[in-house]
Write a structure and sequence with these properties.
Blueprint: H1 3-8, H2 20-30, H3 53-65, H4 75-91, E1 98-102, H5 105-120, H6 125-128, E2 137-142, H7 148-155, E3 163-166, H8 176-188, E4 192-199, H9 211-221, E5 224-229, E6 253-256, H10 258-261, E7 269-273, H11 276-283, H12 316-326, H13 328-350, E8 355-359, E9 365-370, H14 377-393, E10 400-404, E11 407-413, H15 421-441
Parallel strand pairs: 2-3, 2-4, 4-5, 5-6
Antiparallel strand pairs: 1-7, 6-7, 8-9, 9-11, 10-11
The chain binds pyridoxal-5'-phosphate (PLP).
């Protein structure tokens, strides 16, 4: 983005009117051309869905229709519940479970962990607060867990140390033997093991924890079993790969993210909770200004009682219209396609002597780097970071970076229905070319 454009965002509060056509012209010239989103076939940075036209249209219609999804007896609220039901069906959760559409995966995980805390606390946390909990609660996950869980645990008043990260080995999955040992140690030390979080696709490398084994462990250890399925819960709809997330359907709660692999425009996440009563018991409040009536607009459940927001946007419409137009089978096929592309890229890298794979490729996330023999870790890092920045700046591709067990690498997350294999071939060629150029010329 040129500085001239950047400076337009420092203009101060407008006091007098501007014709809408001029306003739009300015937006078209400044904002629309400089996105940070996944609408290009070679956008593979971080982890984002790649949006879709119908979803954009739905967001427009939702704003025009103007419903508040805090609840009530109206069409949009029924559609909101229907989309939650469709999410249950996609991941194999029972119809009797509850759920809510939220801003994204971070909030979905947060809502689920709050319910887990309240159920496992042994005291009425809502009334008495975390200080009344007799034995400090412990939550467990692998060290590859997404950072939103830390924020949630901290905001819940449990403190970061309540979230025990179990070190991973080469497979980057939750180590169940190590977990059992930590749980036994914690019990002996007077802690209350409360919840195990399984990752169905870690954000770093796409590793999928053994969800069946975690479900068994949760039963024997009497833990709440939560699955962070922001990336991988929807693999359940992909015929070639659904076996990878078996066990997901046994969780007590799941977070999933329609703005990732369902390509909904931002924002929409979904939390599902098996025990609908426990879910409601965590958030329901009786408000004199939000009562229920036998008839009229207030004669249905208040959806705001399943989470933290009161006013809620009509997020359901973009998911509903897109699923209706395309059908869920197509989305499953696109997920399989992205995973096949991840493995294809892995093969391209493996057959290129100047590149190396840094973490095992499980699904659609590939971690690799330019080798640069003879250079130390710091130099390898700056060389690869330079490759990444040049790819972004010259517009070839947007990829991101990470560090896996101390090794810096480039990271490609192919969550994109517009990507073709030729795009991946181009990426490999360009990384090699840039790597050679930078290594030789600096
Ligand atoms: C993206 C992601 C999140 C956070 O979801 P947002 O929609 O970005 O809030 C949480 N966990 C995992 C594994 C993710 O990939």
């Amino acid at each position: 983005m040129p500085d001239k454009i950047r400076r337009t965002f420092q203009a101060s509060l407008p006091h007098s009117p501007t014709p809408l056509s001029d306003v739009y012209r300015e937006v078209a010239a400044t904002v629309m051309s400089y996105p940070m989103g996944n609408i290009h076939p070679r956008f593979w940075a971080w982890y984002m869905g790649s949006s879709n036209f119908t979803g954009a249209l739905a967001d427009f219609l939702a704003a025009v229709q103007g419903s508040n999804l805090g609840g009530g007896n109206h069409a949009a609220a029924r559609m909101d519940e229907q989309v939650v039901d469709w999410c249950k069906q996609m991941v194999g959760f029972p119809a009797s479970s509850s759920g809510s559409l939220v801003s994204g995966g971070s909030m979905a995980n947060t809502v689920a962990l709050i319910v887990a805390r309240n159920v496992k606390a042994g005291v009425d946390v809502r009334e008495r607060g975390v200080a009344a909990i007799e034995r400090p609660l412990r939550f467990y996950a692998s060290d590859q867990l997404h950072s939103c869980h830390r924020k949630a645990i901290e905001a819940m008043g449990l403190g970061n140390r309540a979230l025990q990260r179990i070190p991973t080995g080469g497979d980057l999955r939750l180590d169940l033997e190590a977990l059992r040992a930590v749980i036994a140690r914690d019990r002996a030390a007077g802690f209350q093991p409360a919840c195990v979080i399984g990752s169905a696709g870690t954000v770093n490398t796409g590793a999928i924890d053994d969800l069946q084994a975690i479900a068994d462990l949760a039963v024997t250890e009497d833990l709440w079993f939560h699955v962070d399925g922001c990336i991988g819960a929807l693999i359940a709809i992909a015929p070639d790969n659904c076996d990878r997330v078996r066990g997901l359907e046994r969780a007590d709660s799941i977070a999933l993210d329609p703005h990732k692999w369902l390509h909904a425009p931002f924002e929409v996440g979904c939390v599902l909770v098996r025990d609908a009563v426990a879910h409601l018991a965590s958030f329901a409040v009786e408000q004199e200004y939000l009562g229920k009536t036998p008839r009229g607009l207030a004669s249905a459940d208040w959806l705001y009682e399943y989470g933290l927001q009161t006013s809620r946007g009509f997020r359901a419409l973009k998911v509903w219209m897109t699923l209706k137009q395309h059908g869920v089978i197509k989305f499953g096929r696109l997920i399989d396609q992205n995973i096949a592309q991840g493995h294809y890229l892995d093969e391209l890298i493996a057959s290129e002597p100047l590149l190396e794979i840094v973490a095992r490729t499980t699904i659609n996330i590939v971690c690799f780097r330019y080798r640069a023999p003879g250079l130390d870790e710091e130099a390898v890092k700056s060389l690869n970071a330079e490759i990444m920045m040049r790819l972004q700046e010259d517009g070839t591709a947007a990829i991101s970076d990470t560090t896996v067990h101390g090794r810096y690498c480039l990271r490609v997350a192919i969550n994109n229905h517009r990507t073709r294999r030729s795009d991946l071939e181009l990426l490999v060629r360009e990384v090699v070319r840039l790597g050679q150029q930078i290594a030789h010329k600096g």
